[in-house]
């Protein structure tokens, strides 16, 4: 009958409506109040709630603990592997004492974004745990943007200095016409930076003046950083303290042969200096590294100075100062194109003992176009390196590092043959 059918339909609709209401009630209340059995993420919607912000160390390192529901939801349990054995050391601030040291960068305002990249590398791999200061020097005043961006990125104090005019100009004894003729000649011979005046001021400043700047008077050690460099491994110890505690005065990562046309008379001038100042030349020096015939000729080997960790007090010593003054008088920064790398290197090789020069093998470093990547697989694992070992320059033909090893009587690290070319 139509009447009975209508009643049945109405009853069905009411029942269905009631059931939906009850189900709705159960769901909405369970997700906000008693979720454990249902495993519904907490309100807020984001996935962040599923990932424990810090997995306790004990859980990371004990491979055989049964995963509880929390680990079940961590991203590690779904097809990726937890790095269970290693704890990641570069978190928080390293305890213990610090050395009397700073980073040092010479830069122009136009270098802002390239030095920003370098700072991130240094901070991420080392300094965020050690918070060393950073001194920036420039022959022009730094602008607000340079200061803002670099201060933002450095975890230590930042200091900005203007280079005094005498440290960035021609000394009065330089013959301007002669210097200009040299630049024109080098331009025609296409010698890199051969016609540049500012590059020469830069090389002279880095050779003899940066360590005299008043902002560096407060420090004993420096780490030089240029724009656009990269670090590829964690530096999970303090290289400054290492220098101090092991009585090191100069540290390098890369060495190579200098372009002879930029330094035709540097060695002759250095030999005259040695004859006039024999007391500055130390016993147990590194003559073997820079000469193959006991000092007659320079083999052009030098440490690449865009990376340096060194002692400011050594550079400020009478020996090194006398050496720089002698070279500066000779005029080769302007009559040739002497670089600060061979100047520092000859100084270090002759005025330091072999043991005072340190090869920072575990600091993996890149400045266009060369890479230093540790040869040792153990080190590359230990320091979480991202460099391709085949790119390591140390054992290739144009590197001087094997000469350094030979001089010290060291065996080359396992696997070096695979990186020769
Ligand atoms: N303030 C200032 N800094 C300079 C000047 N020229 C170079 N520099 C800095 O001096 C350092 C060396 O200069 P670079 O241009 O990197 O020279 P380079 O490393 O021989 O050559 P690149 O392969 O171009 O890097 C860098 O830290 C530069 O930022 C300059 O005219 N003024
Ligand atoms: C750091 O070294 C400089 C240079 O040797 C020195 O003048 C200064 O007193 C030292 N500072 C500290 C805190 O030792
Ligand atoms: Mg550079």
Automatic annotation (TrEMBL):
Sequence ranges of Polar residues compositional bias: 74-90
Active site: 308 (nucleophile)
Region Disordered: start-end pairs: 44-96
Gene3D superfamilies (UniProt xref): Spore Coat Polysaccharide Biosynthesis Protein SpsA, Chain A (3.90.550.10)
Keyword Manganese: no
Swiss-Prot/TrEMBL keywords: Glycosyltransferase, Transferase
The protein's name in its UniProt record: Alpha 1,2-mannosyltransferase 2.4.1
Species: Arthrobotrys oligospora (strain ATCC 24927 / CBS 115.81 / DSM 1491) (Nematode-trapping fungus)
Native organism taxonomy: Eukaryota, Fungi, Dikarya, Ascomycota, Pezizomycotina
């Amino acid at each position: 009958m139509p009447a009975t059918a209508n009643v049945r339909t109405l009853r069905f609709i009411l029942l269905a409506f009631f059931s939906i209401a009850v189900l709705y009630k159960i769901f909405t209340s369970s997700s906000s109040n008693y979720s454990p059995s249902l495993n519904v993420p907490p309100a807020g919607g984001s996935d962040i709630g599923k990932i424990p912000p810090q997995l306790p160390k004990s859980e990371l390192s004990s491979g055989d603990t049964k995963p509880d529901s929390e680990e079940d939801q961590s991203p590690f349990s779904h097809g990726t592997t937890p790095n269970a054995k290693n704890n990641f050391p570069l978190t928080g601030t390293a305890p213990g004492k610090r050395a009397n040291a700073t980073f040092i960068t010479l830069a122009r305002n136009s270098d802002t974004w390239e030095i920003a990249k370098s700072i991130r590398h240094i901070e991420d791999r080392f300094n965020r745990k050690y918070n060393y200061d950073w001194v920036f020097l420039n022959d022009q005043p730094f602008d607000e943007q340079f200061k803002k961006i670099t201060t933002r990125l450095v975890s230590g104090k930042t200091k900005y200095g203007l280079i005094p005019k005498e440290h960035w100009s021609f000394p009065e004894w330089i013959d301007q016409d002669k210097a200009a003729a040299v630049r024109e000649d080098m331009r025609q011979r296409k010698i890199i930076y051969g016609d540049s005046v500012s590059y020469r001021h830069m090389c002279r400043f880095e050779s003899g003046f940066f360590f005299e700047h008043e902002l560096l008077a407060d420090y004993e050690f420096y780490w030089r950083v240029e724009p656009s460099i990269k670090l590829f491994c964690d530096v999970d110890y303090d290289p400054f303290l290492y220098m101090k505690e092991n009585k090191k005065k100069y540290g390098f990562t890369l060495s190579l042969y200098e372009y002879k046309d930029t330094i035709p008379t540097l060695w002759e001038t250095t030999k005259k200096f040695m004859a006039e100042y024999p007391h500055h030349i130390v016993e147990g020096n590194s003559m073997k590294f820079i000469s193959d015939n006991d000092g007659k000729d320079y083999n052009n080997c030098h440490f690449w100075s865009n990376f340096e960790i060194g002692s400011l007090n050594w550079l400020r010593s009478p020996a090194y100062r006398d050496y720089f003054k002698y070279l500066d008088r000779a005029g080769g920064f302007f009559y040739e194109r002497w670089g600060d790398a061979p100047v520092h290197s000859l100084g270090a090789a002759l005025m330091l003992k072999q043991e005072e020069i340190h090869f920072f093998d575990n600091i993996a470093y890149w400045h266009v176009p060369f890479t230093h990547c540790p040869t040792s697989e153990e080190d590359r694992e230990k320091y979480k390196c991202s460099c391709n070992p085949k790119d390591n320059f140390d054992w290739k033909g144009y590197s001087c590092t094997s000469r350094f090893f030979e001089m010290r009587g060291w065996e080359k690290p396992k696997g070096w043959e695979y990186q020769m070319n």
